[in-house]
Specification:
Blueprint: H1 11-22, H2 31-42, H3 48-66, H4 72-86, E1 90-91, H5 104-110, E2 112-113, H6 115-128, E3 133-138, E4 141-148, E5 151-156, E6 162-164, H7 166-177, H8 193-210, H9 214-227, H10 232-244, H11 248-261, H12 268-284
Parallel strand pairs: 1-2
Antiparallel strand pairs: 3-4, 4-5, 5-6
Helix pairs in contact: 1-2, 2-3, 2-8, 3-4, 3-6, 8-9, 9-10, 10-11, 11-12
Length: 285
Amino acid sequence: MQQSARVLTHPAFARQRFREITGRPDPALDLVEASLVIALEDEPGIDIDRYLDRVNAWSDAVRERLEGSRHIERIVDSINKLLFEEEGFHGEDEDYYDPRSALLHATLDTHAGLPITLSILYIEISRRVGVDVSGVSLPGRFLVKFSGEFGQLVIDPFDGGRVLSTVELQKLLDDVYGGGVRLREHHLRAFTSKEILARELAHLKSAYLARHDLPRAAASIDRLLILDANDPYELHDRATIAVQLHAYQEAIECFERYLALKPHAGDLARVREQIAYLRAWLEQN
């Protein structure tokens, strides 16, 4: 039987779709769809609808099991049973800087992933069954927080959906800071959907930089700048990569935007010198 040809999506179309999705109000922004579109630009042969159908089917299965229940423990148990017991999802970070580790479709294929991708899946299944849920970030671990009349419940999808106590949350901080930082409410601040996507793209950017894949690192920054066009640090990084890619006019524009946002930057003199050097090179070539 002849296999159907794989349909490839041009990166420009994936980029435009990402721009459209992230232009929606936060409550209407589907993290799974946006994450799959991030993957689509990097791997243009993936079938987004197939992955969305799979996530929707899992969500429907959880909804049926709940039978209308709004009891938070039952909701968490139902999601955990489906994802971690039946589907076998689990945390895996052996190759932390493999770019595929930050691409949601890879997590959906292998049923293994990083805290950020597993959390995105957990959040969107929860939202699809009508539960108020958000992402929170502690150093080295992205988590899921349920909020309501019951208070708040913090879940670790990387560890099989385990419910974390205050003591366990403190231990996550201690593992990084050696006991020097006490857990405060701001550590459990709810991330917006755009902030979650930014965290995913930041990991992707780091993974590509670790592999010296500058064009794809630049593409990751470009999407970060769609989420926040006035992030001076991403503009600086984008300019630096543009120089390495010999895209000097683009580098100048990014450096100038960086200085407009940070007129008293500590590296002001060096950046001005770099802009002058690049302008001189362009005039002579």
